Amino acid sequence: MEKLKSIVSKFDIAGEIKTIAPFGTGLINDTYKVETDSGTDYVLQRINHAIFQNVEMLQNNVARITDHVRNHLTKRGAKDIERRALRLVPTKDGKLYYHDGESYWRVTVLIPGATSHEQVTPELAYHTGRAFGDFQEMLADLPGEPLGATIPDFHNMEFRLKQLGDAIAEDKAGRVKEMKPVIDEIMAREDEMTAPERMARAGELPKRTSHCDTKVNNVLFDAATGEVLCVIDLDTTMPGFAMSDFGDFIRTAANKGDEDDKNLARVGLDMDIFKAFTKGYLETAGRFLTPTEVENLPLGAKLLTYMQTVRFLTDYLNGDTYYKIKSPEHNRERTMAQLAHLKSLEAHEAEMKEYIKSLKK
Q1: What is the DSSP string of 27-65?
Q2: Which three-class secondary structure state does DSSP give residue 116?
């Protein structure tokens, strides 16, 4: 506690610190709630430097994003702006983070009266879709150079397949023979799934400022009214495809089963969640997306599910060196569940496209 108080004291906060306690359910950064006697509370985070290796870039990205969102909200005449955009608190010497010699730390103002959700309903999916679409729209005219890539090649399918190819060639855990049928299924889809990167190089598909982690728990809601307040967890916000943000939500939230479900009969697309999220998303993002981007939203759902299948398989072949596992078969189970979800998305592709067309009428 005293060490954390010492770290917080380096930042330009109001009032005296009363308590510091663990906060939230995030898996990447260590997060604490800082209560003060000023009426304003704060969030302290230890930035995971193993994942976010360029902290200066990361924090500059977040500052640019939050400043630009705040500018848009001001132009709209939005009320209660301080609850609708994150605010970084600088250190007393004006930096956006503090390095204690071992770890990197940052502080933001805690948004009062806010709540988040872990489970998705069609209603929440709709509001989450609107929130992420609006977030993308506000950042579509971000001035200056594109944001830095805080995790290079994070959603680059060509890169992920290269990693898989290396894992197959090295066969560190001796699992390639066992997984050969799955590898063949994955490689049969390679051309379709790498198409977005080729389209981008040809100028047919723009890179947008994308959140890259579009989960329902990354949206804050007003605890009293249920109204959307703002999008949070901005660390992976960087250049990417709009359809990848769309697809990441469908991969995680519109799956009737679990990400690692052993019962593959439970796995598959929840069309109610898909329709609700898509409706909300296009109500806001539809104001700036190109026809090509809208047309490829179902591909985005398949792409992100395929990508996660590849990533789980790669880790399984490498001997489980990246993801935490609960058993030696965990990454294999994840791979098979994601592949089952991908096949369900493929089976529903015509229905997804038809629904998107119906929203444009």
Answers
A1: SSSEEEEEEETTS--EEEEEE-TTT---HHHHHHHHHHH
A2: coil
CB 173 within 8 A of CB 318: yes
- Does residue 256 contact residue 266 with C-beta atoms inside 8 Å? yes
pLDDT of 287 above 60:
yes
Q: How far is CA 38 from the centre of its chain?
A: 33
Q: How does strand 208-210 pair with strand 98-99?
A: unpaired
Which residues, in sequence order, are CB contacts of 133 under 8 Å at separation 6+?
A: 280, 281, 282, 283, 284, 285, 286
The C-alpha atoms of residue 3 and residue 53 are separated, in whole angstroms, by 23
Of 246, 336, 348, nearest to 297 by C-alpha is: 246
Tokens 């991969």, located at residue: 251
Q: Is 216 helix (H, G, I), strand (E, B) or coil?
A: helix
Q: List the beta bridge partners of residue 104.
A: 47, 99
Task: Report the alpha-carbon angle 28-22-322, nearest 5.
Answer: 20
Question: Residue 30: its pLDDT value, please?
Answer: 85
Residue 353, helix vs strand vs coil: helix
> What is the DSSP pairing of strand 30-36 with strand 17-22?
antiparallel
Burial 169-180, CB ≥16 within 10 A → b, else e: eeeebebeeebe
Cα gap 230→78, rounded to integer Å: 12
Name the token pair of 35: 């209560």
Rg (CA), the chain: 21
Ramachandran quadrant class, 320 (left: phi over 0; alpha: psi -120 to 50; beta: rest): left
| Assigned token pair, 184 | 């063949």
Closest CA to 250 of 304, 212, 294, 207: 304
128 pLDDT above the threshold of 60: yes
Task: Decide: 246 and 281 in contact? Cβ < 8 Å.
Answer: yes
pTM over 0.85: yes
Find the helix or strand (DSSP H, E) in which 232 lies: none
Q: What is the mean pLDDT of residues 333-349?
A: 98
Ordered domains of the chain (ranges, CATH): 2-112 (3.30.200.20), 122-359 (3.90.1200.10)
Q: Are 20 and 34 in contact (CB under 8 A)?
A: yes
